[in-house]
Amino acid sequence: MNLSFDKGTAFQQRVWHEIAKIPRGKIMTYTQLARRIGKPRAARAVANACGRNPYAPRIPCHRVIRSDGSLGGYSGAGGIARKRALLLKEGIRLNRT
Question: Could you count the other beta carbons within 10 Å of the beta carbon of residue 42?
Fold first, then answer.
């Protein structure tokens, strides 16, 4: 996916590029995403970058969840309720909220 960002820090843009690679109907944890960008100890920074994503849902940060299986946050309009609805629409049901 060829994406061009006009917002965000270099780190945030790196996270957003990686999020864009998560296929529809799949999820990943903040920790897994941190490992994918080569920053295995940066799960919290990855979560913060997700929270600053101005491109949601085009950059599907709703597909990134906490390691304990709960949803975490969502930067897009509608907050957590919208994140849950987007995941359900993709066939993803989580036991934790």
Answer: 19
Q: In CATH, what is the architecture of 10-89?
A: Orthogonal Bundle (1.10)
Q: Are 54 and 61 in contact (CB under 8 A)?
A: no
Structure tokens at 45: 């920074």
Condensed to tens digits (0 to 9), the pLDDT of residues 17-73 reads: 999 999 999 999 999 999 999 999 999 999 999 999 999 889 999 999 999 999 998
pTM above 0.70, yes or no: yes
Q: Is-contact 63 20, C-beta < 8 A?
A: no
Positions annotated as catalytic residues are 61
Q: Domain ranges in the chain? A: 10-89
| 75 contacts 52 by C-beta, under 8 angstroms | yes
Separation of alpha carbons 58 and 97, rounded Å:
23
Q: Token pair for residue 49?
A: 């970058």
Site of tokens 């949803």: 71
